[in-house]
């Protein structure tokens, strides 16, 4: 009995050392998975989508200068990129961007196929015209959503791209890389507020309006007029416009080159 008591005592002590003899609920271990939609991560997530968009745009631009007889060999490369885009998993905050991307890709591919269906002697020019307009519109919506996601200002192109001579691949605009709105140490223009600053086509009050820069928002500054009263700004895609210095706070602008505006 004395030996048995020792075993009982040892068992009780062991249970105590192991926290308890009862059932203990496991405490979930945090996974530490970062939120892809958080401001610190969303640019990297958007870049994954836009890398495929740029591949597609490159392929469609190549097709725009491809002879009619060789077009059937070019279309599959665009279809391959579209399949990659379809299979790409994106977080919920990028669902609209992906939807616009796929709509734009489908518009371009379908336009090519309809155009080719008419044959070299009688190409479907009506489908070409309609497809160009649709793909341009969708690409513009895609660019606007992309800019919204990364907190940048998107300026629509001031001039329409050159039309393709015989194919629908050329009219879509190509977004550039996805940098931060303004790089550290680079010249930038920040809207003073309280209302938005007007970005214009030319450095004068009668210049057409390209975009509105909300109060507190910044955009890259790339040049200035000789009198220093107007600053040339550029969005992440290389589109440029002009904003008066009275509406912005200019940072790191001492070395901005003097730019002669286009007539």
Please name the defining characteristics of this protein:
38% helix, two-stranded antiparallel ribbon, 5-stranded antiparallel β-sheet, 263 residues, disordered N terminus, alpha+beta, SH3 type barrels
Describe the fold and architecture:
The protein is an alpha+beta fold. Among the domains are: 109 residues; 64 residues, SH3 Domains (SH3 type barrels). It contains five helices and seven strands; from the N terminus they run αααααβββββββ. The strands form two sheets. The protein has a five-stranded antiparallel beta sheet with strand order 6-5-4-1-7, with no helix packed on it. It has a two-stranded antiparallel sheet with strand order 2-3. Helix 2 packs antiparallel against helix 3, helix 3 packs antiparallel against helix 4 and helix 4 runs antiparallel to helix 5. The chain starts with a helix and ends in a 12-residue tail after the last strand.
In brief:
By secondary structure, the chain is an alpha+beta fold. It has five helices and seven strands, in the order αααααβββββββ.
Query: What is the β-strand count?
Result: 7
Alpha-carbon distance between the two ends: 108 Å
Order of helices and strands: HHHHHEEEEEEE
How large, in whole angstroms, is the Cα Rg?
29 Å
Low-confidence stretches: 1-24, 158-182
Give the neighbour order of strands across the main sheet.
Answer: 6-5-4-1-7
Proportion in helices:
25-40%
Estimate the strand proportion. Answer: 5-15%
**What is the count of helical runs?**
5
* Structural class by sheet pairing and helices: alpha+beta
The mean pLDDT is: 76
Quick one: biggest sheet? 5 strands, antiparallel
Shape: globular
